[in-house]
Write a structure and sequence with these properties.
By secondary structure, the protein is α+β, with helices and mostly antiparallel strands. The protein contains three helices and seven strands, in the order E-H-H-E-E-E-E-E-E-H. It folds into two domains: 10-15 and 63-131, no CATH class; 18-58. Strands 1-3-4-5-6-7-2 form a seven-stranded mixed β-sheet, with helices on one face. The longest helix is centred in the N-terminal third of the chain and has 20 residues, at 18-37. The model has no long low-confidence stretch (mean pLDDT 87).
C-alpha cells in the first residue's frame, strides 16, 4: 500500500526564490567573464556588461518565476490571482531545482523548489506526475 494519498487540489503560497537569484547572478558572472576575456574592443565591453546587468536586474535570464497564491486544481490547470491558467505540459527534467510549466499559449513559468516547503514540493511533483 502506498503512503502517498490522493490530492485533488493543492494550494500554495509561493515566495521569492533564492535559487532563482543565485542562478541569474551566476549566469551574469559567466557572461560578464566571457565578455571581459573576449577579444572585443574595450569600447564594446562596457556597454555589453551594462546590458547584461540591466537584463539581469529587470527580467533575469530564465522564464519568470511563479509567485503568490497558487492553486493547482489538476495537472491540466492552475489558478493564479483568480484566473484559471491551462497547462500544456510540465517539464520534470529540472525538478531538483525547479519545475518548468508550459502553458497552452507556449508561455513558460518556473516553479522554483525553494519557493515552498520540501513536503509541498514533493506532493506537487507526485500529483503532476500521476496525471501527466
Amino acid at each position: 500500500m502506498s503512503l502517498i494519498t490522493s490530492v485533488k487540489c493543492a494550494r500554495f503560497r509561493l515566495t521569492h526564490s533564492y535559487l532563482s537569484l543565485l542562478a541569474n547572478y551566476l549566469i551574469l558572472v559567466l557572461a560578464s567573464s566571457f565578455v571581459i576575456l573576449s577579444d572585443l574592443p574595450l569600447v564594446a565591453v562596457f556597454p555589453s556588461i551594462y546590458l547584461l546587468m540591466t537584463v539581469t536586474i529587470k527580467s533575469g535570464f530564465f522564464a519568470s518565476a511563479l509567485l503568490g497564491d497558487v492553486t493547482f486544481l489538476s495537472a491540466q490547470e492552475y489558478q493564479l490571482d483568480r484566473s484559471l491558467i491551462p497547462i500544456k505540459r510540465v517539464v520534470f527534467a529540472l525538478s531538483p531545482a525547479a519545475l518548468l510549466i508550459v502553458h497552452d499559449d507556449n508561455s513558460r513559468v518556473l516553479l522554483w523548489r525553494d519557493s515552498m516547503s520540501e513536503k509541498q514540493y514533493r506532493d506537487l511533483i507526485v500529483m503532476l506526475k500521476r496525471e501527466h
